[in-house]
């Protein structure tokens, strides 16, 4: 039974290819000409941690102007790449999300060809 569980865990791990997620996020951001390169750091941290505080996300953008950094976070939310933990609270943390159009970039082995 343990062998079957290990086999299944290895199979799912191979399908998800989580070890290469940083590169996949970078590729996703780079393929979108309308996203600033700093978006990759915000998305990767949200992926690693499960969620990211807005303050940490703003800090990762390395933007000198807070307004520009906030615009980037809004764009990521509008695109469905980040979602609010609590949509009623404008200060709630942000969750990493996988909108349908990003599925093939993040999880190519799970998406139908």
Brief summary:
The protein is built from 6 helices and 3 strands.
Instruction: Count the domains.
Output: 1
Q: What is the string of helix and strand elements? A: HHHEHHEEH
Uncertain runs are none
CATH H-level homologous superfamily name = Winged helix-like DNA-binding domain superfamily/Winged helix DNA-binding domain
Organism: Marinobacter excellens HL-55
Protein name: Crp family regulatory protein
Account of the protein in words:
This protein has 113 residues and is mainly alpha-helical. The protein has a single domain, classed as Winged helix-like DNA-binding domain superfamily/Winged helix DNA-binding domain (Arc Repressor Mutant, subunit A, Orthogonal Bundle), CATH 1.10.10. 54% of the residues lie in helices and 7% in strands. The radius of gyration is 16 Å and the shape is elongated. This is Crp family regulatory protein. It comes from Marinobacter excellens HL-55.
Describe the secondary structure blueprint for this structure.
Blueprint: H1 2-16, H2 21-31, H3 39-49, E1 51-52, H4 54-60, H5 66-78, E2 82-84, E3 94-96, H6 103-106
Antiparallel strand pairs: 1-3, 2-3
């Amino acid at each position: 039974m343990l062998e079957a569980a290990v086999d299944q865990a290895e199979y799912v791990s191979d399908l998800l290819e989580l070890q290469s997620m940083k590169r996949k996020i970078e590729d996703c951001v780079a393929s979108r000409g309308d996203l600033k390169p700093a978006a990759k750091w915000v998305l990767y941290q949200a992926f690693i941690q499960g969620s990211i505080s807005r303050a940490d996300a703003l800090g990762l953008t390395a933007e000198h102007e807070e307004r520009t950094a906030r615009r980037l976070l809004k764009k990521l939310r509008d695109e469905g790449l980040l979602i609010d933990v609590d949509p009623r609270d404008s200060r709630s943390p942000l969750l990493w999300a996988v909108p349908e159009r990003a599925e093939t970039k993040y999880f190519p082995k799970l998406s139908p060809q």
